[in-house]
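Replying to the earlier thread about multi-chain prediction with a worked example.

Input:
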Amino acid sequence: MLLSSVVLVLQETLEAALLVSILLTISNQQWHKLSWLWFGLFGGLVMSFLYANFMVEISEWFDYVGQEIVNATLQILTTFLIAVCTWALFKSRQFDMPGEGRQNNRFISIFVVCATGAVALAITREGSEILIYLNGFLQQKEYFQTIVAGSSIGFSIGLSIGILIYYGLLNLPAKWRLGAPVILMALFAGNMLSQAAQQLTQADWIPSTRAIWDTSGWLSENSISGQSLYALLGYEATPSAAQLIAYIGGVVLVLALATVGHYSKHSHPATSQVTS
Amino acid sequence: MSRKMPKHLLLLGLAAILYSHAAAAKTPVIEIDIKDHLFHPSEIVIPADTKVKLIINNLDPTPEEFESYELNREKVISGSRKAVIFIGPLPPGEYPFFGEFHPKTAQGKVLVK
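Result:
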């Protein structure tokens, strides 16, 4: 009981912890902004409670696949917010002149709002599952202490890994300091969209196909490394075609918006009279 | 006349939905119960390359999470409620599943033949 609760809560925590550490790395490195995180955490907590509380009703929507549809919606929204974050990051970097512009432009606000939303949505899905899990054991008094202990351990490990990733990313050599978090954001978005495709297949909203390959002999999803890779990057030993396409789609979307943000012209306060 | 267009489109949409439901009716349905954190039956047999609709009745008052790495499926089932999960089409083989909230006892497998 103890070990299974450690594993369950750790799995749920890892994904959100990874997203938080990537987004926080960027906002700290670029603009020394950290306080948005509290809004994301708080919003996520409130929405987790709501989602967990209404899970019975939501599950019965759309002929008993409401849970899948809501999860997929949250995952697609998260992907979208991450993509906008990347775009805003590169847009804001065009204000490279010294002084006000670098630290104070509207793209920073766009990044912060989208990052807050993405963190809140990620916590909503994972948090609600933990709450339903813990709530279930409130009725099984003999296990409750063990479950709470195991969940706390799992949560602490997840949090520690998140903090490690955060400081790891902050202390990368200068040439990787921007690229590494952006690549991680692209992979995270791919993971999110692939999970959305999985949920929609499970609900029979998109047609199911046979798995396109099977790497379970090489790296099983039952193994510790397989589970960690699943939680962090969305590893699937037997992905469907829809999942693979969605994964690539998420990665390409983020990288494309990063490129657009980097190269597109904008009406710069200093140059707007010339360009417009 | 032009105001009637949306109505026609609506009818067309309804027809499409009804058709898809008629097609869905051919999907085999298998029911599994959860009782005392055990799956009944704990082993089900389904045909290869066929989509199957699983209906899982959680007869326990506590929630459970249906999980299977091999089937790529994951779903929370509230206490005393039922859930629908579509699986397949699958190649022949053994596909274990378990209840993530009670993994010691809640174990089962899908045999695809």
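The two ends of chain A are 65 Å apart (CA to CA).

Feel free to reuse this layout for your own posts.
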